[in-house]
Amino acid sequence: MFPVARSDPKSLPKPSLSTISVEHIRIDSIKSYADTRATLEGLPHFDDRIRTLLQYGDIDKVRSALQKIQGDAGLVSFSVATHGDWLQIVSSKRNVVQYVIGNVLIPTQMTRTNSTRPSMRLFAS
Hints:
By secondary structure, the chain is of the alpha+beta class. It has a domain at 40-107. It is built from five helices and two strands. A two-stranded antiparallel ribbon has the order 1-2. The longest helix has 12 residues, at 59-70. The radius of gyration is 19 Å and the shape is extended.
């Protein structure tokens, strides 16, 4: 058994609740699962070394690296979660994969509009 850390309830963040509208985009493909997955896997993958450039404040190199990696489409694959593998815990393995795909610069531009007090937001690009 793992020990559970106890915190003073007064020191915990206070959650707030608000209702938001989210546009869900679904793209159906006439290609097979394997062909569609191969196409998505062919997108450029985010390179975490770009974060190192950011930590050192080399913003010009960060912008250049982001533009280069995102290519003409302006998209990069941030992560791939093979949820279908986990389904075998409760039933059987299935073809279910979640891709997080987007453009790094779009949320950066959106956050800039509230730069004096940025807050966490959900961005889809």
